[in-house]
Amino acid sequence: MDAEIKALRRIPMSNPFLKLSYPLLLVLIFFSISRPLLAAALTDMDKSVRSMVSGIISYTRWPQPEQPPTLCVFSTARYRDALSAAEGLPVTYHPVMVHSRQDVLNAGCAAIYFGSESPEQQVELQNMLNARPTLLISEQNAECRIGSSFCLLFNTDKVTFAVNLDSLSRSGVRVNPDVLMLARNKNHE
Questions:
Q1: Which InterPro entries is this protein grouped with (predicted)?
Q2: Which fold, 44-185?
Q3: 135-138 and 150-154 as β-strands: parallel, antiparallel, unpaired?
Q4: pLDDT in tens, 168-180
Q5: Where are the domains of the chain?
């Protein structure tokens, strides 16, 4: 057995090409093994957003339940990595990254998380979904008068949400009334 190991150690050094690529191979192996260790950890705000969105989705019911529901996250979203990351807190949805309205239409989203899309663009997409039950959540719609049903509101150290009842009533989904009461309370996190 020792003779086999010594023979394997000599193989890379006998070929000039392998001799030059051996250090590169070791570096690639190191980075592939340590990549999860080098990944950025979720910040407290990332965790809050992830928990908030996961909680909203867990208290939402669709006419035809999908387990877990597909959450389409627009690539323009500030917290897209936190919502789609495999590490950290468990989620109640299956995340899918989307880049355009066409991606959303093709993905069969049960919920959509908007980034920099305007409230008008959110309404336009909602109309394009042809009355398909879809929960809309936005991170940049502070007024929350049109567009998304749930609008995340960011303070320096916490995230809260507002509810657009008109949009929610047109969404085709049902949300537990306790969640709606939290939005009125303003003390939720």
A1: YfiR/HmsC-like
A2: Rossmann fold (3.40.50)
A3: parallel
A4: 999 999 999 988 8
A5: 2-38, 44-185
